[in-house]
């Protein structure tokens, strides 16, 4: 596939007077110019009268066509030149050479390019290019780039990874794009949204085990990654004022498990499999919440009321009892149209949708450091579920007190195509504990998959204790949990509701 790129004299480029690109110098289709044809639109555009353009075939990276062995993807070396030599562009240093995570929040219109280079310009640079139709890793110099073989992680259950627009640029939408560089393991990762390896969309594995069991580069070519440290970012189109870049010292390796076990129960097999984690591995906010609710006396059935769970089960499943009456009042709470009463458009009587309801009983006082009262007992009748929702960037610990609940974790509630599962469903039984942080498991849906009695099942209720806290450095304290109305299945496609009554106003009791 041919496309247009330029050989640049960077010094001549910045000595050229500013103005609009001459028509003869504008890039051809395929080089991803800005909306007006200027590839540096939004970046204080410069003329390129000293640039000569050439049509040259290059191969690189990954796009949907690669799935059919098309074997070629357009690489914009023009952007690579700009990101390396744009005037007064900030450089964001990694703390350590060859490793770290770069997070870029941007609203690009045509392309986002992240370049990581060494101080020695004779060495190649690493590029991540994200456009509306592709996402690619490449390496080389600003005049040319070469392919880094990459694919979505084959073991990932992340629904939608590897296909569709979810991998690519969210045009004119403020989105977080991240790049993880892990030289010790020889792994590059790209993802969007929360900085978690569960959200990896593209991955390159560049090391292998040698005969001595040591990790070595599969090709000596990749050794240049050991020295890269300087980060530069180029955004084409969109609002440049919204561009934000941060770096972290460590790469994204394995996301901590959603299951939390006491440290005395962890085995060597658990360390190998990463099926469980311990509270010491989690943020301090989660550690504090865990210390309050993980104890052996935080239970539903107590010696003075050993059948409390069965009593709740009868109350929520029997018409006329308090629990069932409260559920009837909440019917339709999370639908697009609000509560369902009276006749529908076809003249037939509409029955309230009870299955997307559950009861929430707050415990204690509002401590003003969480979205509402921090401790909430939630009652989930058989077959009932929550909408897909997020947690206002708060931390949380969830303990199952009775029955079984299933958690479905998603990437975002604002994806154009709807939220995508990032892992298989998680089953939590009595005594089990899971957790939430601003970067892990922030978007989820809870379901009691026990069959209702009217459907021939046992109708087992589930009771959970949820507890929340803002980050210690959170200066926003957003009180509500945004949700997707009518998200009745595990992959809903309805649009997020960003206004009106929001799910999770947990300062209010049932």
TrEMBL record:
The membrane-spanning stretches of this chain are none
Q: Where is the composition biased (Low complexity)?
A: 487-499
SUPFAM superfamilies membership: RmlC-like cupins
UniProt superkingdom: Eukaryota
List the InterPro entries hit by this protein, alphabetically: RmlC-like_jellyroll, RmlC_Cupin_sf
The record's Gene3D superfamilies line, in alphabetical order, gives: Jelly Rolls
**Annotated region (Disordered), positions in chain:** 487-510
Give the protein's recorded name: Cysteine dioxygenase
């Amino acid at each position: 596939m041919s496309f247009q790129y330029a050989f640049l004299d960077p010094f001549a480029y910045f000595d050229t007077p500013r103005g609009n690109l001459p028509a003869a110098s504008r890039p051809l289709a395929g080089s991803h110019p800005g909306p007006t044809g200027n590839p540096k639109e939004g970046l204080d555009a410069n003329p390129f009268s000293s640039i000569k353009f050439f049509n040259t075939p290059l191969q690189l990276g990954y796009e949907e066509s690669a799935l059919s062995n098309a074997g070629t993807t357009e690489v914009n070396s023009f952007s690579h030149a700009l990101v390396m030599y744009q005037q007064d562009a900030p450089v964001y240093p990694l703390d350590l050479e060859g490793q770290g995570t770069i997070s870029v929040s941007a609203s690009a219109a045509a392309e986002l390019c992240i370049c990581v280079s060494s101080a020695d310009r004779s060495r190649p640079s690493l590029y991540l290019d994200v456009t509306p139709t592709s996402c690619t890793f490449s390496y080389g110099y600003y005049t040319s780039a070469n392919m880094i073989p990459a694919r979505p992680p084959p073991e990932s259950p992340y629904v939608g990874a590897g296909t569709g627009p979810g991998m690519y640029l969210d045009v004119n939408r403020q989105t977080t794009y991240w790049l993880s560089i892990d030289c010790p393991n020889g792994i590059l990762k790209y993802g969007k949204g929360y900085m978690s390896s569960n959200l990896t969309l593209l991955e390159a594995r560049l090391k292998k085990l040698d005969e001595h069991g040591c990790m070595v580069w599969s090709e000596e070519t990749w050794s240049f990654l050991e020295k890269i440290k300087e980060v530069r970012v180029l955004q084409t189109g969109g609002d440049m004022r919204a561009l934000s870049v941060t770096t972290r010292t460590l790469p994204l390796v394995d996301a901590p498990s959603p299951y939390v076990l006491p440290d005395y129960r962890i085995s060597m097999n658990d360390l190998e499999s990463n099926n469980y984690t311990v509270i010491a591995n989690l943020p301090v906010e989660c550690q504090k919440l865990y210390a309050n609710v993980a104890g052996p006396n935080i239970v539903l059935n107590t010696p003075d009321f050993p059948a409390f769970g069965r009593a709740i089960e009868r109350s929520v499943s029997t018409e006329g009892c308090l629990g069932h009456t409260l559920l009837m009042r909440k019917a339709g709470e999370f639908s697009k149209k609000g509560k369902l009463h009276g006749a529908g458009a076809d003249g037939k009587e509409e029955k309230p949708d009870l299955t997307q309801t559950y009861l929430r009983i707050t415990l204690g006082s509002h401590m003003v450091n969480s979205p509402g009262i921090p401790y909430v007992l939630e009652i989930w009748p058989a077959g009932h579920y929550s909408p897909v929702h997020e947690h206002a960037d708060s931390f949380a610990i969830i303990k199952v007190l009775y029955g079984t609940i299933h958690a479905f974790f998603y990437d975002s509630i604002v994806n154009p195509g709807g939220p995508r599962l990032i892992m298989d469903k998680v089953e939590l039984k009595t005594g089990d504990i899971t957790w939430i942080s601003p970067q892990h498991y922030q978007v989820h849906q809870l379901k009691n998959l026990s069959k209702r009695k009217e459907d021939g099942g046992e109708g087992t209720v589930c009771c959970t204790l949820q507890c929340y806290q803002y980050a210690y450095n959170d200066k926003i304290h957003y009180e509500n949990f945004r949700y997707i109305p009518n998200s009745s299945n595990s992959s809903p496609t309805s649009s997020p509701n960003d206004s009106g009554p929001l799910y999770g106003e947990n300062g209010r009791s049932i």
